[in-house]
Amino acid sequence: MQQKTRFLMIGGFLGAGKTTAIARLARHYTDQGLRVGLVTNDQAYGLVDTETLRGQGFEVGEVPGACFCCKFDDLVDTAAALGADGQPDIILTEPVGSCTDLMATVLRPLGHLFGDRYRLGPLAVLCKPEHGRKILGGGSGGFSPQAAYIFLKQLEEAQLIVLNKVDRLTDDEQAELLRLLHERFPEKKILSASGTTGAGFEDLIVALAADNPLTDQPLDIDYDTYAEGEAALGWLNCGVRFTSKVEWPLDDLVQRLVALFSQTLLAANLEPGHVKVLATCDSTTHLAGELASAGGATTHPFTAIANWVASSTPVELSLASNQNATTANTLINVRVHGDPDTLAQLVKTSVAEVATSLDLTYELSELQHFRPGRPEPQHRYETSTG
Predict the structure, then answer these.
(1) Quick one: pLDDT at residue 289?
(2) What residue numbers bound the domain in which 344 lies?
(3) CB neighbourhood size of 62 (10 A)
(4) What is the DSSP letter of 254?
(5) The model's pTM
(6) How many H-runs (helices) and E-runs (strands) does the chain carry?
(7) pLDDT score at 161
(8) 212 and 357 Cβ atoms separated by less than 8 Å
(9) d(Cα 103, Cα 110) in Å, to the nearest integer?
């Protein structure tokens, strides 16, 4: 009998730190000698998270164009394709940050239809502290009440809540967030962790080793409110190619872009869910060993990533390349609470301004900007048997 693949889903709101946490989990499982596959998900095409994880050497499939629930068959096919060269022991999946009702629309259907293939772990949801303090305290965190509703429903359906990014919190801030979580969700298992430093990950890994009981208690969710919450968000993905005759610091480029995005979005009263910019360039370096001794050289990509996740937080250079470039291919992902047409104009204006400040030429491509459509799940099982 073929061994089942462990299937883990790590959810959470936009900017909750899912990609960083999944990368750390994947490294842990790989270090244990396990074969790991990853599946990312986005409403659009051209996802920074996918390229980030692939850049770390992981095998990554992507389900673009809608949430996992709306593209359930694509999720199943993408996960199966990860086993083309050998069945993964573990598949880690990262759903869209504005998606909820995952137990009924993804995990229960997966268990029912493909239980011979997968062994499901608990649904883990990362709590984003930047907006959690405000929303758990009764506010909306700069979002509409409908968007805040999604944030809370994600935590309500979680079988495991993880207060993430605790390395950025003071002891008092962490204690206050944990108090708010325990008060609102007294029956939940709640952990503290940091995807960046690894704090708390030993406990998280133990918790994820449990099997998913696929409880028959359906999430009480209003799909009209859910749809309104998604529709309140502006979504933008695009690519930009920057070139120049002289070198410039790649890290400076991504930081300038995100810094200017943050300034213009705040001025337009657009609260960020997350802003991510990834830039890559090629550098010719000599290899050690026989190839180098023969005068050989190879081209290696360098990557810089900057992000911004809330109006109350600074821009962060999350991955430094320490590299100068004359050409850079850049992916831009921006999620805000607000009008996508306004968002697109602000992004285009900011890209042009940064290019001028660094004396670069640029070409913008594959610009997608929209409001997410109403969630239309392929399946919705209110109980484990459908």
Answers:
(1) 30
(2) 233-370
(3) 21
(4) H
(5) 0.93
(6) 13, 14
(7) 98
(8) no
(9) 10
CATH of the domain at 350: 3.30.70
Q: Letter for the amino acid at 242?
A: F
Separation of alpha carbons 323 and 249, rounded Å: 6
How many C-beta atoms lie closer than 10 Å to residue 57's C-beta? 11
Cα 207 to the center of its chain, rounded Å: 21
- Where the chain has pLDDT below 50, the residues are 284-299
Contact status, residue 124 vs residue 25, Cβ threshold 8 Å: no
Q: Same domain, yes or no, for 62 and 89?
A: yes
Same domain? 208 vs 326: no
Residues in the chain: 386
pLDDT at 3: 86
What are phi and psi for residue 190, nearest 5 degrees? -125, 130
**Same domain membership, residue 64 and residue 134:** yes
Could you tell me where the beta strands, DSSP code E, fall in the chain? Answer: 5-12, 36-42, 59-64, 90-94, 118-120, 124-127, 160-163, 189-192, 233-249, 271-285, 298-308, 316-319, 324-337, 361-370
Residue 377 located in a structural domain:
no
Contact assessment for residue 361 and residue 355, using Cβ atoms and an 8 Å cutoff? yes
Q: Which residue has the tokens 């050289």?
A: 297
Quick: pLDDT tens for 132-172. Answer: 999 999 998 899 999 999 999 999 999 999 999 999 999 99
pLDDT in tens, 30-69: 999 999 999 999 999 999 999 999 999 999 999 999 999 9
Determine whether 377 is exposed, middle or buried from the number of CB atoms within 10 Å of its CB (0-12, 13-18, 19+).
Answer: buried
Place of tokens 């709101």: 13
